């Protein structure tokens, strides 16, 4: 049972993101800003640091592919960027100590990296022609604010859950 | 794979929408009094309009019978569908996922509308779900043949979306045409896939385009692109021209209604 807990949790977060985008009242602040939930990738970040890097990268690939297939229909962007940002996160965390405040902050930084990388990718394949400053204003900053709120609520439960998962792995 | 996710999504979406529905009902109750007053005002107009529409429809039916015209480009079959998810990757991918797919008869490039107006087109289908690209997507291949209902009918294409004002751009209007504010824009049906006369929006502003050869009109869309929960997928009543169909098969990836 414990074995399935992590994939189930991540799958739930995956569906939750779609549902959040659908039900979130998008017209607050006149609909000027776009809030993107990034709780799934934050959970994967936490998994790399409290669980194991290998699992983080594998789940990054799986859910990146799923995200591409279901939500964007351009296979490759998230398939590539989820594992990459998870790896980047792990690299940064190796340089500094792993207390929960720092983990949360660095995960937000990596969300910003992910957002910017997605923007650059979309710019390259001509999905958008928006300039960076309006992207930052409309999407990047609101997204970071929203995910800060997510992290504050989810950091401790996620940490506990993945530590349990890591223990179970070690005992196997 | 996508069907499985679609199934899980609808499994989660149904109870959540129920709960959200309860909250929305409570909120609605607060505004009931104000709304009631407003609606009563409209009701008087409604009765008159209804009578007028009825007589016009009768007249139209009689006249088409006399002329022996079969069907019109405005004919369509609506199919009701419920939104089960929306892409969280908004701004780049303004798409929603609904619970009707190719097994229900949904096909690529069909027009999709809410009760108020056109919202987009079917981007892709799986047997039990389909993905709908909204008009507010920044995708430059998102083009729709549209008609402006002024004194004279003018044709152009809906190309692009102005994020700041949330206006659509109607391009390719003749430069000498006099276009007034608040004129209605509908789909023309000339693209071959969409039915005609589906409302899109109202003209807000007209500017000459880059080279001064055409005019571009800014359209305020009738439909709300944010709060969408139920949509109608429209099957064109008129036959789809052969050229369009062959073209569609030839380039499956590129889906323009042009």
From TrEMBL, chain A:
- Would the keyword Methyltransferase turn up in this protein's UniProt record? no
Q: What are the TM regions of this chain, as residue ranges?
A: 31-50, 57-80, 100-125, 137-156
* One Pfam assignment: MreD
Major subcellular site:
membrane
Name its cellular compartments.
Cell membrane
Q: State if Membrane is listed as a keyword.
A: yes
Instruction: Write the protein's name.
Output: Rod shape-determining protein MreD
- Origin organism lineage: Bacteria, Bacillati, Bacillota, Bacilli, Bacillales
Q: Which gene encodes it?
A: mreD
């Amino acid at each position: 049972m414990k074995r399935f807990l992590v994939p189930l949790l991540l799958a739930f977060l995956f569906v939750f993101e779609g549902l959040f985008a659908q039900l979130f009242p998008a017209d607050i602040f006149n609909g000027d800003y776009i809030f993107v939930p990034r709780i799934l990738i934050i959970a994967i970040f936490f998994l790399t640091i409290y669980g194991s890097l290998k699992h983080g990268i594998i789940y990054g690939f799986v859910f990146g592919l799923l995200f591409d297939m279901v939500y964007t229909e351009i296979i490759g962007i998230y398939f590539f960027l989820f594992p990459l940002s998870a790896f980047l996160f792990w690299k940064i965390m190796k340089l500094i100590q792993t207390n929960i405040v720092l983990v949360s902050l660095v995960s937000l930084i990596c969300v910003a990296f992910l957002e910017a990388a997605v923007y650059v990718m979309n710019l390259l394949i001509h999905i958008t022609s928006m300039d960076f400053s309006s992207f930052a204003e409309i999407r990047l900053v609101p997204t970071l604010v929203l995910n800060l709120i997510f992290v504050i609520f989810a950091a401790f439960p996620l940490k506990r859950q993945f530590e349990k998962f890591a223990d179970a792995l070690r005992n196997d | 794979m996508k069907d499985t996710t679609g199934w899980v999504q609808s499994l989660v979406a149904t109870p959540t929408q129920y709960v959200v529905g309860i909250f929305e009902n409570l909120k609605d109750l607060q505004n009931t009094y104000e709304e009631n007053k407003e609606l009563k005002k409209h009701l008087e107009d409604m009765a008159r309009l209804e009578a007028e529409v009825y007589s016009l429809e009768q007249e139209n039916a009689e006249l088409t019978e006399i002329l022996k015209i079969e069907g019109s480009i405005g004919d369509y079959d609506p199919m009701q569908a419920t939104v089960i998810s929306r892409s969280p990757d908004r701004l780049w991918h303004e798409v929603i996922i609904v619970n009707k797919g190719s097994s229900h008869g949904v096909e690529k490039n069909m027009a999709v509308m809410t009760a108020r107006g056109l919202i987009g087109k079917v981007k892709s289908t799986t047997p039990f779900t389909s993905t709908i690209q909204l008009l507010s997507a920044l995708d430059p291949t998102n083009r729709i043949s549209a008609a402006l209902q002024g004194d004279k009918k003018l044709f152009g294409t809906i190309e692009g979306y102005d994020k700041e004002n949330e206006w659509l751009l109607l391009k390719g209007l003749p430069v000498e045409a006099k276009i007034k504010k608040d004129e209605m824009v509908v789909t023309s049906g000339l693209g071959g896939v969409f039915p005609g006369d589906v409302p899109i929006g109202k003209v807000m502003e007209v500017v000459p385009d880059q080279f001064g050869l055409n005019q571009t009109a800014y359209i305020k869309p009738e439909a709300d692109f944010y709060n969408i929960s139920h949509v109608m997928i429209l099957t064109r009543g008129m036959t789809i021209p052969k050229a369009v169909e062959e073209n569609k098969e030839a380039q499956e990836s590129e889906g323009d209604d042009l």
